[in-house]
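Example record for the data management plan.
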Amino acid sequence: MSADLTERRPYHREDLRRELLEAALGYVRDHGHHGLSVRTLAQAVGVSPGAPYHHFKDRRDLLLAIALHGYSELGAAATRASSSRATAKEKLLALCLSFIAFAQANPRLLQLMYESELTSPMADPALLAHQHAGRYALQAQLDAALPSLSEDARTLRLLALWSTVYGFAALRNKHLIDPFEPADSTPDAVARGTMILAVEAAVSLPTT
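Corresponding structural encoding:
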């Protein structure tokens, strides 16, 4: 068998892109994205250094594919959270908690999705589409809960709610709020209690 055929065989491995992406996702979840390289990925999967380039043009393209997979998982969780026959307020809470749960389960993946070279100085357009979809999911429930408020007023409430959700997730993942959590509670209870307060504030009607 010629050396050329031997070298090219891994390129034709069935579902190689899926294998590469699964290995990359596993690496990011365990170690973060900073040390991931195309060469590292090739070694992990057991293919030649050039094989991944048939599926990802460079490291950034690989990272983008990983982040998009994360957004797909996050979007699926949001869909499940808002697909019930619950009230708009209940769906808002479910949406917030679904994000918190994803963030806690995937802290390093979340960093890639929101705080990496893919988002600086501007978020990649492919990521923006998913971020906008998440905002629309919250917006739809706020619109349903507060039809009498102006669009500008609802937008401000959306910004406050989203800031609370993302801020809580980021602080929790960095272990910055751990010292302040009630000793007789659990992390899940703290998250739920915080999100209930945030949603209550978002949907409360003005008193004047």
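Summary line stored alongside the record: The mean pLDDT is 91.
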